Amino acid sequence: MDFNSYLDKANDLLSKDIVVDGRVIPVKYVAGAAGAVVGLSALKTYFNGATNTSKKRLDGKTALITGANDGIGKETAIDLAKRGATVIIACRSSEKSNKALADIRRASNNNNVFLESIDLSDLDTVKAFANHYLESGRPIHILINNAGIMALPVRKESKQGYELQFATNHLAHFLLTELLLPVVKKSAPARIINLSSRAMYNGVIHFDDIQLKKNYQSWKSYHQSKLANVLYSGYLARQLKGTGVFVAAVHPGVVRTSLSRYMTEGFMYKVAAVAIYPPLYLVTKSPKQGAQTTLYVATSNNVNDSNSGEYWADCRVVHGKNKYQHDKAVEDNLIAVSKELVAKWL
To answer: Listed GO molecular functions (predicted)?
Structure first.
């Protein structure tokens, strides 16, 4: 059949009608609706991203996850617990956290899931948590620094007086990891996973005003903290090469979680959020989908020293998104500043 003949037959088909319960529906409307459904489904599949296909069991392994009482962290905890791991969810003590603990145990059919208290906006509790963990003698085969806050509209400070996004997203996890490194190395082979974001693409470490006291902007702060996660991952990988400890920075994708709660404060923001939710749903991930890259680097057999310290998205390494990534001078400078800020607790 030549092309013109094909078009004639297609036009003839679309010009016809079908009858449903006595109602006439033009075929072209049905075809258009079907095409729209297929197109939207394809779009949704694309934005859902890659899926971790590893079937690896984790019996006898211990995973520690911060902020696992909600969203990506909770889904990560469920998956690792289903694989047989002992899972510690480190978050603030609350009714929400207690419910999450029960949910994770039930969903995974694994009672070796435990809640331990930590407040990442307070370095005193980070130190207390680490001391308690080290004294317990338990191993850590997978450390996932998952918790975070995003885009606070006004500048806030942690208990110690540090800018809150930088303190929570970077400093607290930096301190926690440094304090727990002895047990992580002793537990090798082990993995350290730092949740970053594609927000790091625009990140700069403002060494002249790292607390952003002079010019605070919500996204400027978030970008800086997420780049800090990537830089710390690169630094750690250099320090831990040959020890059997793998390090990764992970972008989960644009995920529908409570992380965006600060972006919808106020009545007008809530109205706007309701209005844009339908199209936003198409281009965002569920928490379970957002956990896939974290789970990939936690369970894959394809990670080692050669790709340790890299930035991962959709279950693969992504290069060249920020000029400071793997800049050893910037990494070292950030770590020097970070150590100075948390020296009291190291």
So the answer is: oxidoreductase activity
